[in-house]
Amino acid sequence: MDVAIVGATGDVGRAICGQLIERGELGPTSRLQLVGRPGGSSGDAVHGLRVDLIDAHDEHAPHIDVATRPEDVVADVIVMTAGRTLPTGTGRPIDRDRLAEDNRLVFEQYADAIAAHGSGHEVVIVVSNPVELAVEVFARRLGRHRVIGMGAWLDTLRFRREIANTLGIRRHRVGGFVAGQHGDRMVPLWSTVRLRGLDPDERFEIVERLRGERTLASFVSEVRAAKQRISEAPGIAAAFSAVDSYPPDIQAVIRPYLTHQSGAKTAHGTANATVDLVRTVLDGRDIVVAGQVLLDGEIELGGIPWRGVLGVPVAVGPDGWSRVMLDELAPDETRALWEVAQSINESLVAWGGGAR
Ligand SMILES: NC(=O)c1ccc[n+]([C@@H]2O[C@H](COP(=O)([O-])OP(=O)(O)OC[C@H]3O[C@@H](n4cnc5c(N)ncnc54)[C@H](O)[C@@H]3O)[C@@H](O)[C@H]2O)c1
Known about the structure:
Elements: E1 2-6, H1 11-22, E2 31-35, H2 41-57, E3 63-67, E4 77-80, H3 96-117, E5 123-126, H4 131-142, E6 147-149, H5 151-167, E7 174-180, E8 186-195, H6 200-211, H7 219-231, H8 236-243, H9 248-261, H10 267-283, E9 287-301, E10 304-317, E11 320-324, H11 331-350
Parallel strand pairs: 1-2, 1-4, 2-3, 4-5, 5-6
Antiparallel strand pairs: 7-8, 9-10, 10-11
Bound molecules: nicotinamide-adenine-dinucleotide.
Residues 6-7, 9-13, 35-37, 40, 42, 81-83, 85-86, 106, 127-129, 131, 150-151, 154, 182, 265-267, 270 line the site of nicotinamide-adenine-dinucleotide (NAD).
């Protein structure tokens, strides 16, 4: 199987290339295509990146080649990680509208080229922000089931890690999903949390303790207040310490926010979640992950079959996602998901993404 990384020379793109090879997801008979921007600095840098990756991993590297035109992108799985990112630096405002304006053209350029020149079977994993806009643009051109945004899976892994960390166990013992919009408007689905090795009563008791009296009705305002408080910390180390005092779902939003703001960005965690999804597609079996997908009535929100991009648990296999895997949710979860879903559709219209 072949994988293409659009935006390979960016921070996230490089980390994905490294992890794909180091984790052994692409054997010597596979192909890794590094895609750079025609005329941009990445158009030159992809050639250098290719040599550097071969230098590092010659014994087990896949065949690595380069493309600098959207119409030359060829692979079974295409990872979209090109485009502008949110600025780093503490206290910098987050302007998603501006990001959407800049990146929409990049998304359209690649989506149009893949629709015109591709095999018709590629699965696209979207990393670039705003994830919801990119999913909308690619899904409308390539077909809904072949496009998965990885933001909900990254949010899910962060939520599981914060729960695991609070309990002093490893992340692989924690199950459960995050839905909604990637980032601040994620919806942590506490009702889906599972703890390996514990029976339902024990789990219920632990979740109650971790969560306290809170419901998702206060989640957005809690995140806002937490961000404000950590921004007032006397330094970055103090700000990271302050994060430890919050419940796991709030930590899952503000710790990566602070990581990005610190200037370190979140390239390795993002790459890990992306490579998970690539492996899931290459694996050949249906596996349940969370992802941003374009829904066409698969779930009901606000009493109507919902249409629009939303992060939900989905079964993913070699042809993309096939089914939404949501059992009955708690009332506060349904409500939060509905509010977020409406807000995403409004944003997509404002960003010219063409939500129905
Ligand atoms: N979904 C997530 O969880 C998540 C997490 C982190 C970053 N991101 C997003 O991923 C994207 C990349 O982040 P980064 O930190 O690697 O940014 P970066 O600035 O380091 O890299 C972006 C890369 O995209 C390339 N690029 C820009 N336009 C291009 C085009 N038309 N064709 C090919 N390449 C092009 C640039 O040359 C650069 O190499 C951003 O949109 C960022 O917001 C998403």
